[in-house]
């Protein structure tokens, strides 16, 4: 059984699934794992008849703490200020820094078919007063909160420390304030220049009511308060937060002991590793989610996360590797298996559910989707580099029937992905480059029959040139047949002589894209023949 189905059948409803994120900067592709996992859990619960809501929070009252992400003149002014109150650093019309960055991940989620029922913004919730009851409880039980930090995480706050951060009335910072007294209605706070290293408080102090947006709870307390306020019952969380003594364990304890509520079910999930290597920036691409999403269509991205158990590390290193082509081909294999076709290798349990959960829409007709024809990615990557090719005709010939409207969409999507992959990530070996300067050294491996074929080709070209790719293709077949050379070996000879590799795009179209004189000279040269005939001494294998 698929892991999400196993979870769905083990619980009874209704459920509220939640995740939240600090909108602090670019979304790394690995940070899509949590939202995809949660989306699949929600789909599994709903498929099981469980009423489920999907909530996503934007923790935009968190303080700005990354200097590198601010423009230089904004650093002094905005470090420590709630992200919702930092101006957008780019002049593209967002109300704040937080809205700018949150929009990037909301857009990315939507593109992956992840559509929470509700996005909530902490900067909207605090001023409503909805969190005030939890702020009051946390302050009344400050000693319990301090004891939890000490017991669970070995963090010792002073006896005067209270679990709330006031937004300084003077400088607007929230990351620099500490509350040391609570009289039941107001707190006493100080905005300290040296409370944190990354932001400098203004020195202001005073008594203030902590309610209705004047203050924010520290992250672990805020998380537990979100669960109570929103009735959250399921919230997966990354391994970095799920460790012993980590953030999740603290919030779980605060939920139980301070707000007296059982914390949500956790589904801890592992990281996605981008290999040991730093992503190259030279090609203008990195590990940012929106960049990967530009190359890899959404169903393959979902598949990347859905096919693995949450507790398994995913290695994903697209730069200069065939990781992306393999992802496409694996997806096609899962589709074929779901459609009941024979596939190589064993399929994991629940493979058809993996395929279904990878689809963009939960309402998609999975059987029709699975049965659709998907050209192999590596083949497409060659074809899209072939001059003058009719991609549709070529793929229809491969399928041996016309493509359906949906299959045409899949072809367009895969062809675009192949082009983007070649542009951004592909290893050099995947790129077709005509070796114009000299006969490739790889052509030294040509056998006698292949050399004879190339010599015949050069001789025939003295009489004029074919004008279309198809005409070239016929010529190649004619010469091969006349010389009793299997067509496969004739094509290999062309690829080695022109590309320095044993395979390539459709040979007729490759030659049609080149100057005839060049083709003739190169074929002759690579054949090793002279006016007197074949070379006397043949290289190895001849
Ligand atoms: Zn913006
Ligand atoms: Zn201040």
In short:
The chain is mainly alpha-helical and 542 residues long.
Written description of the protein model:
- With 542 residues, the protein is mainly alpha-helical.
- The chain is 44% helix and 8% strand.
- It contains 23 helices and 12 strands.
- It has helices at residues 3-10, 33-47, 75-78, 97-111, 122-128, 132-140, 142-153, 219-230, 239-242, 247-257, 289-295, 298-306, 323-338, 351-358, 366-371, 377-383, 391-399, 405-424, 448-460, 469-482, 487-498, 507-512, 516-527; strands at 15-21, 52-58, 118-121, 165-166, 177-182, 187-191, 205-208, 215-216, 237-238, 268-269, 272-273, 314-315.
- The strands form 5 sheets. It has a 3-stranded parallel beta sheet. A 3-stranded antiparallel beta sheet has the order 5-6-7, with no helix packed on it.
- Helix 8 (219-230) packs across helix 10 (247-257), helix 13 (323-338) crosses helix 14 and helix 19 (448-460) packs across helix 21.
- The chain is elongated.
- One zinc ion (ZN) binds at residues 168, 170-171, 173, 191, 201-202, 204.
Write the SSE topology.
Layout: H1 3-10, E1 15-21, H2 33-47, E2 52-58, H3 75-78, H4 97-111, E3 118-121, H5 122-128, H6 132-140, H7 142-153, E4 165-166, E5 177-182, E6 187-191, E7 205-208, E8 215-216, H8 219-230, E9 237-238, H9 239-242, H10 247-257, E10 268-269, E11 272-273, H11 289-295, H12 298-306, E12 314-315, H13 323-338, H14 351-358, H15 366-371, H16 377-383, H17 391-399, H18 405-424, H19 448-460, H20 469-482, H21 487-498, H22 507-512, H23 516-527
Parallel strand pairs: 1-2, 2-3, 9-10, 11-12
Antiparallel strand pairs: 4-8, 5-6, 6-7
Helix pairs in contact: 1-2, 7-10, 8-10, 12-14, 13-14, 16-18, 19-21, 19-23
């Amino acid at each position: 059984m698929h892991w999400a189905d196993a979870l769905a059948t083990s619980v009874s409803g209704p459920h509220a699934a939640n995740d939240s994120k600090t909108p602090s900067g670019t979304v790394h592709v690995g940070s899509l794992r949590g939202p995809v996992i949660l989306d699949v859990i929600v789909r599994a619960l709903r498929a099981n008849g469980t009423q489920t809501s999907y909530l996503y929070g934007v923790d935009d009252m968190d303080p700005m703490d990354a200097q590198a992400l601010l423009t230089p003149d904004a650093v002094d002014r905005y470090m420590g200020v709630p992200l919702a109150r930092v101006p957008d650093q780019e002049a593209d019309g967002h109300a704040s820094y937080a809205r700018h960055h949150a929009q990037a991940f909301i857009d990315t989620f939507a593109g992956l078919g992840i559509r929470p029922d509700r996005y909530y913004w902490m900067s909207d919730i605090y001023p409503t007063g909805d969190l005030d009851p939890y702020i009051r409880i946390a302050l009344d039980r400050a000693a319990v909160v301090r004891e939890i930090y000490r017991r669970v995480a070995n963090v010792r706050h002073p006896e005067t420390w209270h679990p709330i951060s006031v937004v300084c009335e003077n400088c607007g910072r929230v990351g620099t304030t500490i509350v040391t007294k609570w009289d039941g209605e107001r707190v006493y706070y100080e905005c300290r220049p040296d409370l944190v290293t990354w932001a400098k408080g203004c020195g202001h102090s005073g008594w203030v009511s902590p309610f209705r947006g004047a203050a924010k709870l520290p992250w672990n307390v805020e998380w537990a308060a979100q669960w109570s306020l929103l009735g959250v019952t399921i919230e997966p969380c990354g391994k970095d937060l799920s460790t012993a003594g980590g953030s999740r364990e603290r919030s779980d304890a605060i939920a139980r002991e301070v707000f007296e509520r059982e914390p949500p079910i956790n589904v801890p999930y592992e990281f996605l590793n981008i290999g040991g290597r730093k992503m190259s920036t030279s090609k203008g691409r990195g590990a940012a989610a929106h960049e990967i999403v530009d190359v890899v269509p959404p169903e393959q991205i979902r598949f990347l996360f859905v096919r693995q158990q949450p507790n398994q590390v995913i290695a994903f290193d697209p730069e200069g590797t065939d990781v992306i082509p393999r992802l496409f081909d694996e997806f096609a294999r899962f589709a074929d298996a779901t459609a009941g076709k024979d596939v190589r290798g064993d399929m994991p349990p629940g493979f058809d559910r993996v395929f279904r959960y990878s689809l963009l829409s939960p309402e998609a007709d999975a059987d029709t989707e699975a049965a659709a024809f998907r050209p192999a990615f590596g083949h497409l990557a060659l074809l899209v580099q072939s001059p003058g090719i009719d991609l549709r005709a070529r793929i229809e010939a491969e399928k041996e029937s016309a493509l359906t409207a949906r299959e045409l969409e899949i072809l367009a999507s895969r062809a675009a992905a192949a082009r983007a992959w070649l542009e951004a990530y592909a290893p050099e070996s995947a790129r077709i480059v005509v070796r114009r300067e000299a006969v490739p050294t790889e052509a030294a491996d040509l056998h006698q029959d292949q050399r004879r074929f190339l010599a015949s080709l050069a001789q025939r070209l003295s009489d004029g040139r074919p004008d279309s790719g198809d005409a070239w293709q016929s010529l190649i077949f004619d010469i091969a047949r006349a010389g009793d050379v299997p067509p496969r070996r004739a094509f290999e000879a062309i690829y080695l002589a022109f590309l320095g590799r044993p395979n390539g795009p459709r040979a007729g179209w490759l030659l049609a894209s080149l100057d005839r004189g060049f083709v003739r000279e190169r074929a002759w040269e690579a054949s090793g023949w002279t006016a007197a005939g074949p070379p006397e001494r043949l290289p190895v294998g001849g």
